[in-house]
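Hey, can you fold this one?
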Amino acid sequence: MTDPRHPCTGFTGLMKRSLAEFFGTFCLVFAGTGAIVINDVSGGAVTHVGVALTFGLVVMVMIYVLSEVSGAHFNPAVTFGFWIAQRLPSTEIPRYLFSQCLGALSASLLLSLIFPGHPALGATFPQGTVLSSFILEFVMTLLLMFVILSVSTGSKEKGITAGIAIGGTVALEALFGGPISGASMNPARSLGPAVISARIDFLWIYLTAPFLGSLVSVGLCRFVQAEGCCGRLEKKSCR
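Sure. Predicted structure:
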């Protein structure tokens, strides 16, 4: 059973949504972690601000391009959040998560071919304590998911302001959280470079904290926003 709110239904719709999530996540990881790699090999030409803006801009652009196809999640924690909020059918979860992880792994594999000498390919590592990075990832994902739920209808980000709000949130969090936790907020974004570079020692942080942050965010949205903002019978946004 497919979500009737999607413009594409049936097998063709499933393939289009899967491809959109694959391509969107691929672009996010290729541009975002690519900016980190290029900053390293160029001696800091991109800068930390440039890396943060790259992540925010690529998310914003991909939302405008692909939101009407798949909802522009590009993030397993976001897909999980929409499911918890009863805005996405359970049958969609495996396809979304597989497409997102495959897109991230493909982007990191391509970066490893372009920059074969780079040791981490933009992987996320805690620069402070493990606890500080875990808390940062939890809180930043909570904030990101709250913004997404508030500017979306059903499981799709819609409207001219959605891309700006979500992309701006990603850039903001990367600006202040990046130097400590890497500001992933996205299990797929961390999975790709960690697996391809074989640097998985701290990967568990980025596979757990974002999901927990997304889970709590749905409860917060239901408490703060209008009644019924998250529920199977509601088709309006959380605003």
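The first helix runs from residue 10 to 41. Let me know if you want another pass with a different chain boundary.
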